[in-house]
Design brief:
Elements lengths: L13 E14 H4 L12 E4 L5 E4 L4 E2 L2 E3 L6 E2 L5 E2 L12 E9 L5 E10 L16 E10 L15 E3 L14 E3 L4 E3 L2 E8 L21 E6 L9 E2 L7 E2 L25 E7 L4 E8 L9 E7 L9 E5 H6 L6 E9 L10 E2 L4 E8 L7 E12 L1
Parallel strand pairs: 18-23
Antiparallel strand pairs: 1-25, 2-3, 3-5, 4-7, 5-6, 8-9, 9-10, 10-11, 12-14, 13-14, 14-15, 15-16, 16-17, 18-19, 19-20, 20-21, 22-24, 24-25
């Protein structure tokens, strides 16, 4: 049963503490196969039909870390997928980050990709100075049938999973949807969380007539058929009834009906997991830019239904992370959980002792000097 109206979250409070030393899993100074080979998304993991673990934290040219255990994975230079940089925005096939995986049998692996159309690189924009005004973001479908070693995608429109019911507009971005979490399965449903940017770019969420057509935030999506890209449905405030439509297939009569309604606290969600012992969904949140949750840093939130979320609790502030670093100009991002004790081949379930993965970037030598770290986190329930 899904709540028809927002309710106070039911359940216990979750806190987390980082414990033990951190380990450099992927260091660009040591492991990169080319300059663009950097950790540029949250770390995700799945186990293939041979028992090999695939740990992915890649760029639009996808490479993986492979091994028998999470602790023993090694970076490989084999390219799993290379973005084709298609100049037509209607093809949803420019730069793609495969960042949400789910394997059904260890051999067939579904991936949702965050696709960025870079209009400035295709001479679509009147200026190259403000690249954020030229973005167009859509999520697309990929499939591997060899255990996750190679991924392909159908041509548009069959590759479309979700996006805004509006076409790309020159110098009017950024706009669109982005699935920035993993995929988890609870009962018959597959879930993920999608986020967006407010749009149009000059809108005000509380000001008429300049109100936003797209309200900033995040919301859950779900499906019962992960092999059908068109089957995902978004939250409309009462149920999962939002159908995502491809605006390039024809006029959209009522675009407002195809836009999800944000749920509380999910504006900077990096990952969602299911804690089986506590019977709770757990969200990983990281906000380095403002005090939406409190001091900028790494937070946790919980839910019983993926819709009503608890007030986030801070694990560690960004200032505390900085205090532990050597002298430099560091930034952080891409926080996620992967539990070596999970029995799920997709690592969608967690216990009280998962690993937290995150990326540290050297802002003095960006964007190509980065390290993907792994560290234990101790979760406690009150």
């Amino acid at each position: 049963m899904w709540a028809a109206e927002p309710q106070a979250p039911v359940g216990r409070t979750l806190t987390g503490v980082l414990v033990g030393p951190r380990v450099a899993v992927f260091d660009t100074a040591r492991d990169s196969c080319e300059q663009i080979d950097i950790p540029d998304e949250q770390a995700r993991a799945f186990r293939d039909y041979k028992g090999t673990i695939h740990l992915v934290a890649s760029h639009s040219v996808m490479r993986q870390n492979l091994g028998a255990t999470l602790e023993s994975v090694k970076h490989t230079c084999q390219v799993t997928f290379r973005s084709p940089h298609d100049p037509d925005p209607a093809h949803f096939n420019d730069y793609s980050w495969l960042d949400a995986f789910y394997t059904l049998d260890g051999r067939k692996v579904v991936a949702l990709a965050h696709m960025e159309y870079h209009g400035w690189e295709h001479r679509m924009c009147s200026t190259s100075q403000d690249t954020s005004a030229c973005w167009y973001n859509v999520d697309t479908f990929f499939l591997s049938e060899d255990g996750g070693y190679h991924f392909t995608s159908p041509k548009a429109p069959e590759n479309f999973v979700l996006g805004l019911p509006y076409k790309y507009e020159v110098n009017r971005g950024p706009e669109g949807y982005s699935v920035d979490t993993n995929i988890i399965k609870v009962g018959e449903w597959y879930f993920a969380m999608t986020t967006d940017w407010p749009w149009p770019p000059t809108c005000n969420p509380n000001q008429v007539p300049n109100t936003c057509l797209v309200q900033f935030g995040g919301a859950p999506i779900r499906t019962t058929n992960i092999l059908d890209p068109s089957s995902w449905r978004g939250w409309d405030g009462k149920d999962f009834d939002v159908v995502f439509v491809d605006p390039y297939r024809g006029p959209v009569a009522h675009p407002e009906e195809h836009i999800f309604k944000p749920v509380p606290y999910m504006y900077y969600v990096n990952g969602v997991y299911y804690h089986e012992a506590a019977h709770r969904f757990v969200a990983v949140l990281f906000d380095p830019w403002n005090d939406a949750y409190g001091p900028p840093g790494f937070y946790l939130s919980t839910s019983t239904d993926m819709v009503n979320w608890s007030k986030p609790t801070m694990v560690i502030a960004q200032s505390q992370l900085l205090a532990k670093e050597p002298k430099g100009n560091w930034t952080y991002g891409y926080f996620s959980l992967v539990d070596p004790n999970s029995k799920d081949p997709n690592y969608g379930t967690i216990t009280d002792n998962p690993y937290v993965y995150y990326v540290r970037s050297d802002a003095n030598h960006g964007p190509y000097v980065r390290v993907l770290f792994r560290q234990r986190i101790k979760l406690s329930w009150k």
